[in-house]
Amino acid sequence: MAGLRIFLLVLGVFLILLGLMFIIASADSDFLPRLIIGFSMLAVGAFLIRKCIREPADKTVVISRTLELSGDVNLEDLTCEKCGAGLSSENISLKAGTIFVSCPYCRTEYQIEEKPKW
């Protein structure tokens, strides 16, 4: 990619110099076609140089996770396995793709496991 940028930069400088030569040569005779060619070469060369020098825009990557529950899901009251205190949704967190519950009373943290339906 860097080689292509250098090539386009050199091509842009070359087109600007060639365009200046056409503009200078238009003073001698047959000025209108040489003037048009000269200014168009200047414009293309300036565009190539600007395109090569400009920094590429940062790409923003958004990663999102969704949790899909299979089967019928019933809302139950959560209680701490150690002390039996009631837990709310504020005590649930998602770490490394698994659901963890932390008890604010006894400071116990454990992973929620789905028990088999049978």
Question: What do you see in this structure?
Answer:
The protein is α+β, with helices and mostly antiparallel strands and 118 residues long. The chain has 2 domains: 2-53; 78-111. The protein is 40% helix and 14% strand. The chain has 2 helices and 5 strands, in the order ααβββββ. The chain has a 3-stranded antiparallel β-sheet, with no helix packed on it. A two-stranded antiparallel ribbon has the order 1-2. Helix 1 packs antiparallel against helix 2. The longest helix is centred in the first third of the chain and has 24 residues, at 2-25.
Radius of gyration: 34 Å
Domain count: the total is: 2
Strand content: 5-15%
Give, in order, the helices and strands: HHEEEEE
Mean pLDDT metric: 83
Find the count of extended strands (DSSP E, 2+ residues): 5
**Helix content bin:** 25-40%
Morphology call: rod-shaped
Q: Low-confidence parts, pLDDT < 50 over ≥5 residues?
A: none
Tell me the major beta sheet.
3 strands, antiparallel
The N- and C-terminal alpha carbons lie at a distance of 59 Å
Structural class of the secondary structure composition?
alpha+beta
As laid out across the biggest beta sheet, the strand order is 3-4-5
Q: How many H/I helices? A: 2
